[in-house]
Design brief:
It contains seven helices and twelve strands. The chain is an alpha/beta fold.
Length: 260
Amino acid sequence: MNKKVIITGSSGYLGKKLVSFLRSKNFKIFKIETKKISQLKTLNEKYNSFIHLGFDLKKNSNIEKQVEITKDVLSFSKKNCKNLIFSSTAAVGPKKRRVILKKNNYQKAKFFCEKILKKEKGHLNIFILRIFNIIGPGQRKGFLIPDLVSKFSKKKITLNNYKNKRDLIYVDDVCRAIYKCITQKIHKSKIIEIGSGRNFSLLEITKKIKKILKSNKEIVLIGKKYSSPISTKANLDKNKLNWYPKIKLENALKLILKKK
């Protein structure tokens, strides 16, 4: 098997974890920044997979630019790769279970990129991975778990939108899912939801953290109970990848808090 892959977004949280994971499996990795995507034109080697993680996370990101980058990735992959793995978002999916925020260009860009990839009918195997809330050790502030943990340094733990439910998936399980895409012998283009298949409210998650930390601090509920989207949960009933997460939320939180 060709064990060479290209990755965009290798400097991000998931990207760094994935590079380490694949290197442990003896893969050779070529990293490319999305702002230097034009360099693809100079590459003539054959790769097993193009893993497109790189994306502007800002809510006001340039949709057209993100779409053009994905088109360049697709064009290169059709000529030089067996697989294209696209990291999408839980915000895209069946209307009854997803909410794309009208003012969130990141989510809208993912939606338009998916549309382009779903139209591709050639020999290239395309995996669209709708990834839910990734958690794991070493995440910076601005992500759900680090932000909740930081609240325990204050006198009281204040929670807003505390009834919002989120599906949390441990980063190692996401890496295993991507590895599964790379190594499958029989491929077909697939849309796959990468989550735990369970969801928990912010209040429930905070209580689990409190229990692990053995904290006596009071949890104070403030503001609104909900924000949009109210709930997210991956549908694993028809998993086309034959992949399922191994690490439950309680164990994931213990692994994260152990690193603190």
